[in-house]
Structures are given as structure tokens and as C-alpha cells.
């Protein structure tokens, strides 16, 4: 059994990592615009360093990023020549509503994305559009404190309704909130949250999570009402948890860690709060304020499919003393001696992708979509800018083989696969350009210097053959 003929092969970027033009076209500032490269980036991401104004002593990678704002026509041409079936991208909320909750949308911003969608349609590429990809309007962070406030629901729903209506017939595949579980790990990135010493941090994070979950459900409802052809998915920062040893406490810890990440998707795909979450709230004294209709909203408006990112698996223990050699990933994880690692310490585990697909499909029984997967590596172009990235080809090949086995052997229902990022973009974790993921090299360095010239890598031509053969030719 081969992959379905309509399997969606593609690639992904995000507005805050690719678009640039943050002060052009009437756009307002968003949270990730205020995340500099360098030492303060993590503290800002965690919400422990409040930074809501642009500073002259910071370098902000998203200000220009790879300047897709001015290069999108040429970029889409490169994607079309590659044979992409789908392009995953995000909208910048503040390009459409500069303050997040303006009375009227910014027509210049709406036209910008309309032109992109029409250009994609001209080349037969379906857009898969994320409404909020680490994107919280700064004006709403100042006004409401980000997603901790219930009024964010109305602002998001108005934004979603506007774009569903405007792009009806141009977009049919939507994601509500990118890697929604990142809210628990980097609260400023995921929810625009910052904290004071007196704050109940866990309660505020889960209150913000509730507002996002209700917003996602309402957006799903409205998308279906506006266009019956719309398909709406949720999005998880995925990756299986392995027990460090066969000790029972390690295995139980892996179960608990899985539940902690799947919590959001349990609500979005099943329509209700799982009992393990309710028990956690009870045990830890976390009180979530809910409106009377929230339970029904969640129950009646589950997503059509489940999407997720996969970069690595995670290894966990029930004993704190085991965490002496950890990995470079955001999630607390022990270095697995059975796996190789990237330059940034992320462990390479193609079989873990197959395991994750099985776990997610068995848990939700909904179609799955791998919307991020890729290798962050230092590329060394020759004098012409060409990169022979056999390491990236090998990484991607192994992960494609793994998800093909999940489909063909395990019976997982998989809609598509979009690599991260199809072009080099600034890295979300570090803000670096030197941590490159793309099949297309972009001439820009960590300090913002370079011509921005786009040059296909060896992997570009390899992936083109993979797509043309629907995954049959992988050499």
C-alpha cells in the first residue's frame, strides 16, 4: 500500500520567522517582534523579563527575517518549481488588526495575504494557514496581559472571522494556534504572558490555555459556518517520551509527561477536559474561571484533524538525579545514549516519528498531518552559494521512511507532510540564521547581514524527486 495519491507534500514557514516588514503596510507589533537574539531571549520567552518596547541595543531577527514580505513572488516560484502540493504559512495577526482588536481591519494587510494566496493558486499550491503562530499583538499584551484575559477570546474570534470570510475560496486548510502546548514552557512566546513575583504562574498559564482552547473551538465553529469545505486542525509540539530505564517509575513518568503535552489536544480533539487534568487542578489548587457555555462550545466544536511538529523524542526518568546529561531541546529530557544528536543537541530519532504517529492516531482516531519536521544544521555554501547538504537529505529520508511505515504497515491516516522550513528562516529557539533548516539557502547571517539571495541546495532537487514520485523515490 502506497501513500494516497492526494497526499500533501510541502514545506512550512511562519510569518514571524520569514516575513519581515514589521513596520510596513500599517502592521502593528507582535510579541515575537520583541524577542532579541542573544542572552536575554530565553528570559523574555519564559515571561520572566518584561520587554514590551523596542530597544536600540537589541538585534531583533524578526524585523527583516528573510524579507519574504518583498520576495514572496520569487519564493513561491521556487516552491512551484519544486513541485510543492501545499505550503504551510501563518498570518501576522497585527498585519490585519494592528492593535489586535481594531474596529476595522487593515486593508493593506488583507490585500498582502490575498496576493499570496492567489499566487499560490496560480501554481496549484494549497495554502495551509496558521492563524496564530507565536503571535500575540503587543497592544493586547499591554491592554489585557495577553491570553490571561478573557477579552482575548473576542479579539481572536473577530480576527478569525475576518480572515475566514475574506479568503473564502482561497484557503480551505486552517490551523488555529501553533504548538499550543508551548504556552506551558515559554509563556510569553505562546501566550504573551509575563509574570510578577506574586503571580500564581501555573494557574495563569492554564487560565490562558482555557481562553485559547475556547477561542480555537469558536474559530472551528465559525470556519465551518462560513465555508463547509473548510478543514480546521489543532497543532501540537510533538514527540514521544521514552522511559530512561525499565524501572516502573520511569515508565509512569513517561505517561505523565505525555499527558502533560497532549492535554491541549485532548480538549481540542475530544471536546472535554481529561480527568487527569482536572485531578491536577484539584491537587495543585489551580482554579480555572469558565463561562457557563464553555463546556458546550468545546464539546460541539472539535477539530477535523490533528497536526503536529516532530523534531526529536524525549527521554525521561522518575528520579531527579538522572538528569545530569540533558539535551538541547526546550523540553526537559535526558540524553539518550542510543541516539545521535544535532549540533544543537536535539536527538535524531526517525523511529520516534512512527511511534508518535501511532500514539496520536490511536488516541484521537482523526486524520494526522506532520506540519513541521527538519534538521537544524550549519550549512557551508561554496563560492556560488550552493550547499551539498547530504546530512539533511539523510535526515529527511529516514523520517519519510518512518511515516510511510506508519501509514502502510500501522494503518495511520496521514494527510500530508510539510518540512520545516522549506526556506532558511530565523530559528524560533535562538533567533539564529546559522541554524538552518531549509532546502533553499538564504544569504543572511546571525547579525542581519547578507544579500538575501535564494539558492536551492542539493536537498531541494532531491525533495523535488520525492514529491514527483509520491515518496517512492528516496535515493
TrEMBL record:
Active site positions, chain numbering: 372
One GO BP: carbohydrate catabolic process
GO function terms (MF aspect): beta-glucosidase activity
PROSITE patterns hit by this protein: GLYCOSYL_HYDROL_F1_1 (PS00572), GLYCOSYL_HYDROL_F1_2 (PS00653)
Any single Gene Ontology cellular-component annotation: cytosol
Pfam families given in the database record: Glyco_hydro_1 (PF00232)
InterPro entries: GH (IPR017853), GH_1_N_CS (IPR033132), Glyco_hydro_1 (IPR001360), Glyco_hydro_1_AS (IPR018120)
NCBIfam families linked: PRK09593.1, PRK09852.1
Protein name: 6-phospho-beta-glucosidase
Amino acid at each position: 500500500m502506497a501513500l494516497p495519491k492526494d497526499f500533501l507534500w510541502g514545506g512550512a514557514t511562519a510569518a514571524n520567522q520569514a516575513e519581515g516588514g514589521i513596520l510596513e503596510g500599517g502592521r502593528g507589533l507582535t510579541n515575537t517582534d520583541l524577542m532579541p537574539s542573544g542572552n536575554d531571549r530565553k528570559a523574555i520567552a519564559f515571561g520572566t523579563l518584561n520587554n514590551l518596547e523596542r530597544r536600540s541595543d537589541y538585534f531583533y531577527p524578526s524585523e527583516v527575517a528573510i524579507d519574504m514580505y518583498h520576495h514572496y513572488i520569487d519564493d513561491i516560484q521556487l516552491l512551484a518549481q519544486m513541485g510543492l502540493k501545499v505550503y504551510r504559512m501563518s498570518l501576522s495577526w497585527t498585519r490585519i488588526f494592528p492593535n489586535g482588536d481594531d474596529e476595522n481591519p487593515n486593508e493593506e494587510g488583507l490585500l498582502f495575504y490575498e496576493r499570496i494566496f492567489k499566487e499560490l493558486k496560480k501554481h496549484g499550491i494549497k495554502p495551509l494557514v496558521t492563524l496564530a503562530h507565536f503571535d500575540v499583538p503587543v497592544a493586547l499584551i499591554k491592554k489585557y496581559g495577553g491570553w490571561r484575559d478573557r477579552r482575548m477570546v473576542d479579539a481572536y474570534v473577530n480576527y478569525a472571522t475576518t480572515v475566514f470570510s475574506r479568503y473564502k475560496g482561497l484557503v480551505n486548510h486552517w490551523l488555529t494556534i501553533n504548538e499550543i502546548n508551548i504556552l506551558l514552557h515559554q509563556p510569553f512566546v505562546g501566550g504573551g504572558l509575563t509574570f510578577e513575583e506574586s503571580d500564581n504562574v501555573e494557574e495563569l498559564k492554564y487560565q490562558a490555555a482555557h481562553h485559547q482552547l475556547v477561542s480555537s473551538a469558536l474559530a472551528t465553529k465559525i470556519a465551518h459556518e462560513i465555508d463547509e469545505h473548510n478543514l480546521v486542525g489543532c497543532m501540537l509540539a510533538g514527540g514521544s517520551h521514552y522511559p530512561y530505564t525499565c524501572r516502573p517509575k520511569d515508565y509512569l513518568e513517561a505517561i505523565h509527561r505525555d499527558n502533560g503535552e497532549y492535554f491541549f489536544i485532548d480538549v481540542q480533539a475530544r471536546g472535554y477536559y481529561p480527568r487527569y487534568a482536572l485531578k491536577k487542578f484539584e491537587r495543585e489548587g489551580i482554579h480555572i474561571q469558565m463561562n457557563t457555555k464553555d463546556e458546550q462550545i468545546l464539546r460541539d466544536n472539535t477539530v477535523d484533524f490533528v497536526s503536529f511538529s516532530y523534531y526529536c523524542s524525549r527521554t525521561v526518568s522518575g528520579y531527579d538525579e538522572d538528569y545530569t546529561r540533558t539535551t538541547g531541546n526546550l523540553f526537559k529530557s535526558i540524553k539518550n545514549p542510543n541516539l545521535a544528536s544535532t549540533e544543537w543537541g536535539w536527538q535524531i530519532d526517525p523511529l520516534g516519528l512512527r511511534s508518535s504517529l501511532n500514539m496520536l492516531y490511536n488516541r484521537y482516531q482523526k486524520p494526522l498531518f506532520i506540519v513541521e519536521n527538519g534538521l537544524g544544521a550549519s550549512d557551508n555554501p561554496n563560492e556560488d552559494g550552493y550547499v551539498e547538504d547530504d546530512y539533511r537529505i539523510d535526515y529527511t529520508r529516514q523520517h519519510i521512511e518512518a511515516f510511510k511505515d506508519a501509514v502502510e504497515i500501522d494503518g495511520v491516516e496521514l494527510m500530508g507532510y510539510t518540512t520545516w522550513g522549506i526556506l532558511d528562516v530565523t530559528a524560533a529557539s535562538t533567533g539564529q540564521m546559522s541554524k538552518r533548516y531549509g532546502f533553499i539557502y538564504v544569504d543572511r547571517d546571525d547579525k542581519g547581514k547578507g544579500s538575501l539571495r535564494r539558492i536551492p541546495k542539493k536537498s531541494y532537487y532531491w525533495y523535488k524527486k520525492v514529491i514527483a514520485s509520491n515518496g517512492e523515490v528516496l535515493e
